[in-house]
Amino acid sequence: RSILLNLFCYWLLLNGFIVENISASIDGALSKSNRLAQSQKNEEALNVLLDAAVKHPGNDKINFNLGNSFYRLNNFDEAIQSYQQVIKIGQSPYLSESFYNLGNAYFRQGKLREALAAYEKTLQLAPNDEDAKFNLELVKREIKRRLNEEKKRQE
Predict the structure, then answer these.
(1) Most buried in the list 23, 113, 115, 148, measured by CB within 10 Å?
(2) Structure confidence at residue 130 as a pLDDT band (50, 70, 90)
(3) Cβ atoms within 10 Å of 83's Cβ, excluding its own
């Protein structure tokens, strides 16, 4: 029994150490990437995050920041994929922000219906998000404007 208990305690300590090292590794990569982005070194910031994503696949924190990095580089397809990876996790603390940023990326691509759906989902998760409320109304107005423009062309 005491051998099993000792092995179990050792296992707990080892796993705690591993989790702390993974967390430190992720936080270090994010910190470095943020410093580079603040210095307008967006390609280098992206590469730091891509390296971190290889080491820690499926990490919501990394995927969210990858989306932001791709967005800064106007690579909206990749940004959308990164935000969708966070959304797939479902229980991420970055969930509402990922929907919001997804809406922004869709808007920049001119995909207004997708942007509208993303902002609506943001507001379901974060009903007081003023930026999402503003963007939702902006998209609604733009859809209405385009529909009116199309209607005038057909007349």
Answers:
(1) 115
(2) very high
(3) 30
Contact criterion met (CB below 8 Å) for 116 and 140? yes
Distance CA 96, CA 116 (A): 14
Contacting residues for 101 by C-beta, under 8 A, at least 6 apart: 64, 67, 68, 71, 79, 83
Residue 20 has pLDDT above 50, yes or no: no
pLDDT at 12 over 50: no
**Whether the model pTM is above 0.85:** no
Tokens of 18: 């591993």
Can you tell me the distance from the alpha carbon of 86 to that of 22, in angstroms, rounded to the nearest whole number?
Answer: 18
- Residue 62 in contact with residue 29, Cβ under 8 Å? yes
Whose CA is closest to 86, among 110, 116, 53?
Answer: 53
